[in-house]
Amino acid sequence: MLIWEGSCGRQAVGPIYAKSGQTAIGSADGDFANNGGVYATVGANWRDLRDDGMPTFVRVEFFFLVEGKWESAGSSESARTNTHASGPLSRRLRHEATAARAAIHVCVDRNALPDFCSRDAIVSFNY
Q1: H/E/C letters for each residue in the chain?
Q2: By the 8 A CB rule, do 107 and 118 touch?
Q3: Quick one: pLDDT band at residue 12, thresholds 50, 70, 90?
Q4: Using CA atoms, how far apart are residues 100 and 36, in angstroms rounded to an integer?
Q5: CA 100/CA 34 separation, integer angstroms
Q6: HSE-up (13 A, CA, CB side) for residue 113
Q7: Hey, which of 1, 62, 114, 115 would disulfide with 91, CB 3.0 to 4.6 Å?
């Protein structure tokens, strides 16, 4: 697990890698930020490192700190790509919370088999 924490601004993520054995087959990097005081946003860039027909995507699990406890706010997945892509994944900030956290990982979609995924990169900010 990779962890970055901060009080404000953007928190850098990555690069993180999905691997098959010791071979990196997907990668992602990006940032996590308070987007205008309205959203907690992961700006992600992800890449398929092999041309094998198994697309790469990013999954983010969002959490908010409410009364000293991290509460889940669900997860989002990016579009899948066989090349490279970028885009935002967001959750609206909760007024009762004091911090936001994202657990980010990159995966390679293997259809009916379990996906190859990276370890989580954990980022957070206070607000």
Answers
A1: CEEEEECCCCEEEEEEEEEECCEEEEEEEEEEEEECCCEEEEEEEEEECCCCCCCEEEEEEEEEEECCEEEEEEEEECCCECCEEEEEEEEECCCCCCEEEEEEEEEECCCCCCCEECCCEEEEEEC
A2: yes
A3: confident
A4: 14
A5: 8
A6: 9
A7: 62
Closest CA to 83 of 114, 44, 47, 57: 47
To which residue do tokens 């989580």 refer?
A: 120
Q: Which amino acid is at 55?
A: P
Average pLDDT over residues 34-45: 95
Q: Are 111 and 10 in contact (CB under 8 A)?
A: no
Strand 2-6, strand 121-126: pairing? parallel
